[in-house]
Design a protein that fits this description.
The protein has 128 residues and is mainly beta. It is 5% helix and 37% strand. The chain is built from one helix and six strands; from the N terminus they run E-E-E-E-E-E-H. The protein has a six-stranded antiparallel beta sheet with strand order 1-6-5-2-3-4, with no helix packed on it.
Length: 128
């Protein structure tokens, strides 16, 4: 899958997060938060990244861990190369009408959508 990129403000981390990665990466998803084994330290979190080549084609998924406080810069869709981010995926903006009044909403699970046939596609990690 090919994505469009948009220039963004340039970010990097003082601690060298993602600096040693050999490939250009895009933040794809956040995983679980877990305890940092260092005493008096910030909890950690798994982040999922996809490789992205220089023609903006998405590749496979990889998991890395970082401290929870880094999520402010590791935004979903941000593109990182050698520890620096200066672009992001240009997502299409959409507006939806939502009603929170009684009878205007319901709780739905992915399984509910699958069983009803409303789920048209499923995200497969590593797929395109």
């Amino acid at each position: 899958m090919t994505v469009s990129l948009k220039q963004s403000r340039t970010f990097s981390f003082h601690d060298g997060t993602l600096k040693n990665e050999a490939e250009r990466l895009v933040v794809w998803w956040y995983g679980p938060i877990f305890k940092n084994n260092r005493l008096r330290s910030v909890p950690k979190i798994h982040i999922f990244l996809r490789t992205i080549d220089h023609e903006n084609n998405l590749g496979g998924v990889m998991r890395r861990e970082t401290v929870l406080t880094h999520l402010g810069l590791l935004r979903i869709g941000s593109v990182w190369e050698k520890g620096v981010s200066s672009s992001r995926i240009a997502y299409e903006e959409r507006k939806f009408s939502v009603s929170f009044s009684p009878g205007g909403w319901r709780i739905v699970t992915l399984d509910d959508l699958r069983q009803s046939g409303e789920l048209s596609s499923v995200l497969v990690y590593g797929g395109q």
